[in-house]
Amino acid sequence: MTTTAPETRTVRTYRAHAHPAWRRILLTREMAVIALLVVVIAVALAVVPNFDSPLTVTYLLRDLAPILLIALPMTLIIITEEIDLSVASIVGLTSVMTGILTQAGWDFPVAAVAAILVGTVAGVINGFLVTVVGLPSLAVTIGTLALFRGIAVGLLGTTAITDFPEFWSDLAKDNIPGTPIPGIMIPFVVLAIVFAVLLHFTPFGRSLYAIGLNKEAAAFSGVDVGRTKFLLFVLSGTVSGFAGVYFTLLYSNARGDNATGLELSVIAAVLLGGVSIFGGRGALHGVIAGVLLIGTLGSALRLAGVTSDIINVITGVLLVLSVVSASFLAWLRSRRISAIGRKKGRTSSAAEPI
Amino acid sequence: MFTHDRKRRLGVSITALAVGAALALTGCSAGGGGDAGSSDGASDANLAITFLPKNLGNPYFDTSNAGGEEAIKEFGGTYAEVGPAEASPTSQVTFIQTAAQQGVGGLVVSANDPEAICDALNEARDAGVKVVTFDSDTNPDCRDLFINQATAEGIAKSQVDLIAEQIGDAGQVAILSASANATNQNAWIELMKTDLADNHPNIELVETVYGDDDDQTSFDKTAALLQTYPDLKGIISPTTVGISAAARYLSTSEYKGKVALTGLGTPNQMREYVKDGTVTAFALWNPADLGYLAAYATKALIEGDITGKEGDTFDAGKLGEYEVGADSVVLLGDPYVFNADNIDDFDF
């Protein structure tokens, strides 16, 4: 089948793409989110007092960093039509591990690596249950959401560990010298580039779309679906572990209930960024813009004195609109295509009797 | 899959317009308020003060912040209240950051966590914001002042005094506490024991029982106490859950009006039991006064009258003169006693 492939290749008589390159790049959902982000920033700069201070950038990126980090593997997982709801609990668990190990006298870097490894193990557990046992990831990660959170709270109770080496907690908070951009953005950008290359420019990444669109077809095309998904859950656990260590340092606080509810912020941003919950569709630049959009909107509204309930309402409406508009437009398109199909059908059947 | 048509662009631009409009509207309206805040202080002190409770929609903080607002109106500052929807350890951080960005004069915080918001508070202080904690403190090095609602001694003494008055300073009493290892309650109970032994020799403390701050457990423990000690004359419950459960039991039992009950409670929980005669009086601090004092303390800090060191004194409007104690703590005073005459003045 493969040996004769070069000889049987035929010259393509139709165009490679229906639309020119600029249109394919600019008129996408990702670009729409980026455009919306630019609009929000521009409006906020114009009308919200104090939004233009460099503090805004520092605070915004520092607080969004855990969401940005976890959104990277979450994007990959949702593209394969799975989900990981346990990420925030893994953040809580690794935060507690960082605290306990540091308190036990371990060197901070060793404790941090050990905590990240705990995150990896948590990802292995998720991956094992989803791919080897074959359970749906929604059910598995709802279970491990409770399990990891339970272990985290159980280990520390209601107490908190707050004593961390100043060098490391300062490092987590400090800006890149001479800029208002927090230092955590350096590891984030590195990770984002790695994930973008992995998702968009490797066979592994392309196989994720195949799995998300049709698992069976992907398996028959030679993609090891189980192994691929397993790797994604392990990645998700590891990155969540890193986010947990960062979270601990940022607030100098290891507690079992750290980052409660963060998984929903991550998933909301990923979906807003144009990733389809049904799998097979999405891109990382859209997701990053989605996280920044929700964060910037919240920050600007808070600065404008809007209460948190109203901010939640606005973000909620935005999310619903983005999901509804995608489905609505898809429905419109399918109607148009079927209308074209009917028209063509009529003309051909009308031509026959003659 | 990746092709798009004109209708999609239309949908996107409508969403963009809607969000932009929402932002513009809220931005404009709130922008006016913000400007007023910075230019209002004619005496060039920035008296824009923001209250940050543990969470919004909590009647206790609604009362305390109303007290703060009253004080800020009196001295002509600008009052604002912000807060998270739920009281999680780090949920207050973004609001502290926002206050720092807005350049408010003072921030009055009830901390959800003594440590988690510390760095954010210190960054705000570096940006020139005076930070006062009330109700729930942070570590002392993260704030300029803490407004303490009551000391353990004051709480213990007021409850012992109330029960002594209600039972005629003689007879058996019992304590219905929270859980056996509740730090606050245990400290108060120790002080109550000392006070009873030293100043009320005719009162006998027969037992301390633990309702675990659970309504049903507290209810059952009250029933058990009354059966075990038929001569019991009074119950002290230094926890809001315990006192309301005990009052609920007493109000429907034969002991109503015969066994005295006092402790720490909130007016809304206790109103019906005070009105039906089950409870004569109970104690708690007055959250409105707490917010009022916090606002005046913040004003004194902003205007440079005090720096927060021990021995500083400042004027707190209708509450009079206050002095800063050790560790930059200001004590509101003795707990407030609620009874049938004043309970309707409170809603928390």
Any key phrases for this structure?
heterodimer; A: 354 residues; mainly alpha; ABC transporter involved in vitamin B12 uptake, BtuC; globular; disordered N terminus; B: 348 residues; alpha/beta; Rossmann fold; 2 domains; 10 helices; 14 strands
Describe the model.
- The complex is a heterodimer of chains A (354) and B (348).
- Chain A has 354 residues and is mostly helical.
- Chain A has a domain of 247 residues: ABC transporter involved in vitamin B12 uptake, BtuC.
- In chain A, 73% of the residues lie in helices and 0% in strands.
- The two termini of chain A are 44 Å apart.
- By secondary structure, chain B is α/β, with parallel strands linked by helices.
- Chain B has two domains: 156 residues, Response regulator (Rossmann fold), CATH 3.40.50.2300; 133 residues, Rossmann fold (3-Layer(aba) Sandwich), CATH 3.40.50.2300.
- Chain B contains ten helices and 14 strands.
- Chain B: Keywords: Signal.
- Chain B: It comes from Agromyces tardus.
- Chain B: One of its GO terms (cellular component) is outer membrane-bounded periplasmic space.
- Chain B: GO terms for molecular function: carbohydrate binding.
Order of the strands making up the biggest sheet of chain B = 2-1-3-4-5-13
Biggest sheet descriptor of chain B? 6 strands, parallel
Remind me, CATH topology of the largest domain in chain B?
Rossmann fold
Radius of gyration of chain B: 24 Å
Beginning-to-end CA distance, first to last residue of chain B = 56 Å
Strand content of chain B: 15-25%
Q: What is the CATH class designation of the domain at 58-304 in chain A?
A: Mainly Alpha
Helix/strand-derived class of chain B? alpha/beta
CATH topology-level fold name of the domain at 58-304 in chain A? ABC transporter involved in vitamin B12 uptake, BtuC
**SSE topology string of chain B:** HEHEHEHEEHEHEHEHEHEHEEEE
| Shape estimate of chain A | globular
Assembly annotation: heterodimer
Domain tally of chain B: 2
Give me the CATH architecture of the domain at 58-304 in chain A, please. Orthogonal Bundle
Subcellular location (chain A): Cell membrane
Organism (chain A): Agromyces tardus
Membrane topology (chain A): Multi-pass membrane protein
InterPro entries (chain A): ABC_transp_permease
